[in-house]
Amino acid sequence: MSNDTGIRPFRIDIPQADLDDLGDRLARTRWPREVPGTGWSRGVPLDYLKGLVAYWGDGFDWRAQEERLNAFPQFVTGINGQDIHFLHVRSPEPDALPLILTHGWPSSPYEFLEVIGPLTDPRAHGGDPADAFHVVIPSLPGYGFSTPVKEQGWGNLFRVAQAWAELMSRLDYGRYAVQGTDAGSGVAGILAMIDAGRVVGTHLTGTTAAMPFGPPIELAGLSEADRARAERFNASQADGFGYLHMQATRPQTLAYSLNDSPVGQLAWIAEKFAEWTDPAAKLPEDAVGRDQLLTCVSLFWFTGAGASSAHAVHEGMQVYREMADRQGDDHASARQGPPTGVAVFAADTTIRSVMDPGGLIEHWSEFGRGGHFPAMETPDLLTEDIRAFFRSHR
Question: pLDDT grade, residue 4 (50/70/90)?
Fold first, then answer.
């Protein structure tokens, strides 16, 4: 099927046997002991995870979530031998601007569900119809329903960006806008370089997660707000990137656990939601809701994307490092490329003086709420920032 370059309709239909298997595995979880009094300092606490697993097994309604996801038009097409799954929602406004949005890890296109309506049909959501977009939201290779991955190399962000450019051509979009978060921000930046003649602008969120390498951030000379972000980044670099190094160096060893244990997959993702969402949220579900969190994890579980996305991180490691090494060159070239906008949310550690020392980024917004998953946490803020940035680039 991956050699089929036609665009085929897609609908999620997880077999009942897979749901039954999940329930059986959850019921037979072999729980570890826990050192008392450690809280979240050593990872996800035992009592918290037991409660989340109990709800996943006997409260969470996958079929209801499946129906909700299937309400959006979805398709699959083969690009360079790889099946690429994507959502494609056209605006009722005839002059809408095409916009491709790219998720990161640990996520999928369904991260953007809450912003699809406001972006495609602002008239129906209290906005200006002149701000309308046709939205295209692909699954990164190795994530969601862009699985299985048929060959090595799809963790390379340049290859993914080339595939996205081809996808937009197949959809007959001559010019288009780009938005990306986390690893998707890396894809978005590359897409603006390789398809600059068609990309009208690039909007980025979650940018620090796409560039975790290099030395700690120097604190001297930073504003109070930026100093707090730098301290959080330095602390994460010292104590919070274990998941990244594991995925980037030994993905196959990790894959056995993620692919065989739904509780292991849940803990692996829930920890990141706990650490990366709005600091005001005490628990992950306070930021995104239990059903959203478990829908995300269920998609990883049913598609086996925990293992394949780890391999994608492994293959993308060198690209990330190369991008970090020539960060100054990229800033210099940004002057000639499409304009860039950046949105920074409360949990983010992105600092303008570090990311944009030359002041070349056209649009910069900072918000006092939200975190690494703004489309789920603060869809209102993300929607308006995307609209505001692209308003002068249509």
Answer: confident
Long-range Cβ pairs for the range 191-198 (8 Å, 24+): 191/100, 191/161, 191/164, 191/165, 192/337, 192/338, 192/340, 193/333, 193/337, 194/158, 194/161, 194/162, 194/165, 195/161, 195/165, 195/168, 196/337, 196/338, 198/165, 198/168, 198/173, 198/174
Q: What is the pTM of this model?
A: 0.95
**133-138 β-sheet, strand order:** 8-10, 74-79, 82-89, 133-138, 97-102, 176-181, 199-205, 340-344, 363-366
Residue at 11: amino acid letter: R
Q: Is 244 exposed, middle or buried (0-12, 13-18, 19+ CB in 10 A)?
A: middle
Mean pLDDT of 132-161: 96
What is the per-residue DSSP string for 266-292? HHHHHHHHHHHS-TT-SSHHHHH-HHH
Does residue 147 sit in helix, strand or coil? coil
Q: What is the DSSP letter of 123?
A: G
| 243: its two tokens | 């998941």
Distance between CA 237 and CA 322 in Å, rounded? Answer: 18
pLDDT in tens, 17-73: 999 999 999 999 999 999 999 999 999 999 999 999 999 999 999 999 999 999 999
Query: Sorting pLDDT into bands at 50, 70 and 90, what band is 209?
Result: low
DSSP labels for 204-262? EESTGGG---SSPPP-TT--HHHHHHHHHHHHHHHHT-HHHHHHHH-HHHHHHHHHH-H
As a whole number, mean pLDDT of residues 190-205 equals 97
Average pLDDT, integer, range 289-305 = 98
Please, which residues bridge with residue 365 across strands? 343
Quick one: average pLDDT of 202-207? 95
* 155-194: burial string, b at 16+ Cβ within 10 Å, e else: bbbbbbbbbbbbbbeebebeebbbbbbbbbbbbbbbbbbe
Q: Residue 5 — very low, low, confident or very high, per pLDDT cuts 50/70/90?
A: confident
Residues 152, 66: Cα–Cα separation, whole Å: 30
Can you give the C-alpha Rg of the chain in angstroms?
Answer: 20
Instruction: Return d(Cα 387, Cα 123) in angstroms, integer.
Output: 13
